[in-house]
Every structure is written in C-alpha cells, then in structure tokens.
Amino acid sequence: MAKKLLLVDVDCGVDDAQALMLALAAPDVEILGITCCHGNSTLENVCRNVLCVLKCCNRLEIPVYGGASRPLLGKNIHASEYHGVDGLGDVPDLEFPGLEALKKEHAVLAILRIVSEHPGQVTFVATGPLTNLALAFNMDPTLPQKIKSLFIMGGNMESRGNYTACGEFNFLCDPEAAYVVLNSFDCPTCISTWEFTFKNMLPWTFTRSGSPRTPRRQTL
Predict the structure, then answer these.
(1) At 15, which helix (H) or strand (E)?
(2) How many domains does the chain have?
(3) In the predicted model, is pLDDT for residue 163 greater than 50?
(4) pLDDT of 50 strictly over 50
(5) pLDDT tens digit sequence for 138-149
(6) Do residues 59 and 95 lie in contact, with contact meaning Cβ atoms separated by under 8 Å?
(7) 3-state percent helix, strand, coil for the chain, nearest multiple of 5
(8) CATH code for the domain in which residue 137 is found
(9) pTM value?
(10) How far apart are CA 175 and CA 172, in angstroms?
(11) Are the beta carbons of 109 and 140 closer than 8 angstroms?
(12) Is residue 212 in some structural domain?
C-alpha cells in the first residue's frame, strides 16, 4: 500500500511536538517536509523545536523550512505562559540542532514546490496559524486544486476560547490568514476545533513495554 504523503505546517510547541512524533511513528505515513510558522513561540524557537523533535526521533533527514515570522496583519502573540518561553516547556539541557540544519528555501516556496511535485497526492496538515498557507495561496491561487486534502487544527464551535474568552489561539494568531484559507480552499477539508481537540487529548498515563507508568505531568 502506498504511503500517505504529508506536508506538515507547525508552530511547534508541546502539542505540535506530540503530533509530529505520532506522524513519525505511523508506518503508513511519509512526511515530505515540515514548514514552520510563528505562533506558540518565535519562528526561530519553532524551527529549533522541530529540529529537536526530529533529532530525538532520528529523523533529521526530513527537510525543515522556516516561514512566516508574523501574521498578515497586526502584532505577534505567543503562548509562552503555556508552552514555555522556548515552546517546549523550557526543559533544561535539550540538545537542539543548529539552525544551519534548516533548508534555505522559504517555507511558502517549499509548499508550492512540494505540492506541485506531487499533484493531487499531498495531505496538508496545519497545526498552527495559517499564515504560510495563506501566503502560498496568494502566490498560487490554483494551490487548493493541487492538494489532496487539508487538515486544520484551529477555531471553535461553541464560542469558547482558549486564549481569550471567545478566541481560539491558532485562528487568533492570524485571523486574516484563517479567513483567506477558509474562504479559498475547496479541497476536502477537516477542521479540528478547540472543543474537538480538548475532548480527544492524549492522556497523561502511557504504557511502556506493557507496564503502566505512574501518572505524572508530562514533559519533553
């Protein structure tokens, strides 16, 4: 069976790190590239965090691209009070690969190139603000027709926010980009809202070698 081809766009905090590790562990998935965006932390930290996850998983062969460092309009907001200043919980002594491991190509250009190289085959997974994807659409309005499907983590259904009273963080980081994407992409699209992700979170208790571990606060 052919593997599912993923292009993953992240603002790598702790949640994105977990999502990446799950995708890396899936035997039927091939990640063609990881594009980075502002969000949970600064763009530089996000890029470092992705490289750190890939190093921990021995998958540094997957290309990583730096992208938008700010929203289309307005000011940056970050979630350092939740994910830590560095985006990965400020765990000491993490051996981050250097940013020289990043590809020189900009994330937006990489999105357009990779999708064009695999027309109709790429599933685009966006777990952060949609700035990179909106910019890619503005450069190539035919992009939605070239993507197999689009998965978005963002928004809400019940007007309850996780950053403001009514605002979900990813969409609030760049509402204009969310508007562009939601009104322009007509490929099959799934949106995992704040409520959905909250109700389907990973448990704190994991099993290793068949033995239950003691529940504790998870760190990376």
Answers:
(1) helix 14-25
(2) 1
(3) yes
(4) yes
(5) 999 999 999 999
(6) no
(7) 35, 15, 50
(8) 3.90.245.10
(9) 0.88
(10) 5
(11) no
(12) no
CA distance 56 to 74: 35
Please give the angle made by the CA atoms of 170, 175 and 179, to the nearest 5 degrees.
115
Q: Please give the single-letter amino acid code of residue 152.
A: I
124 vs 76: CA distance, rounded Å? 24
φ and ψ of 21, to 5 deg: -65, -40
User: In this structure, what token pair is assigned to residue 146?
Assistant: 């070239």
Domain assignment present for 105: yes
Strands (E), the chain: 4-10, 29-36, 64-66, 122-126, 149-153, 189-192, 207-208, 211-212
Residue 213 included in any domain = no
Over residues 102-112, the mean pLDDT reads 97
Considering only CA atoms, which of 206, 208, 200 is closest in space to residue 218?
206
Mapping DSSP to helix (H, G, I), strand (E, B) and coil, where does residue 191 land?
strand
Domain that holds residue 124: 4-204
Model confidence at 80, pLDDT cuts 50, 70, 90, reads confident
pLDDT interval class at 131 (50, 70, 90): very high
Q: Is 121 a member of any domain? A: yes
Residues 17 and 40 sit within 8 Å (Cβ to Cβ) = no
Locate 18 and state its tokens. 């977990």
Measure Cα distances from 77 to 35, 54, 173, 175 in Å. Answer: 19, 26, 6, 12
Q: How many helices (H) and strands (E) does the chain have?
A: 9, 8
Are 136 and 143 a contacting pair, CB within 8 Å? yes
**Please, are residues 156 and 128 in contact by the beta-carbon 8 Å criterion?**
no
